[in-house]
Amino acid sequence: MNKEGNRYRKTRNLIKLEKSIAKLRSHINNIRKDYIHKMTTEIVKTKPSHIVIEDLNAKGMMKNQHLAKHIQQCNFYEIRWQLEYKCKWYNIELVMADRWYPSSKTCSSCGQIHKGLRLSDRWIKCDCGLNLDRDLNASINLAKLAS
Ligand SMILES: [Zn+2]
Question: Is 17 domain-assigned?
Fold first, then answer.
């Protein structure tokens, strides 16, 4: 409200700014979509027999604001959708890991489940001697699901 009691009116500059922000947003969105297209095409063109992806528990993860943003930015559903149809084109089996499968917490060497592993723990150390990056460990576990 201004001093006359009218609703705030947008200045010409503000309108201009809003337009350029909208343009930038759409530009960023296009870059992201283009990137996902290139990335998923690159993956299927290596002609693997199968691709395993994790059905993330997005609902539970949304409770964590940082993760919610991260998931949004990664456009997980866009990636999954693109992989789904591109795998069909190339006759690649797309395996969806169960969202409750503890891919990060399971030792890829001996199978022991490390229930105490937190999201902030980037490395998994196991009694069996395994000492590995958590994502690499999870990837090995997910790859096993397809074989
Ligand atoms: Zn182990």
Answer: yes
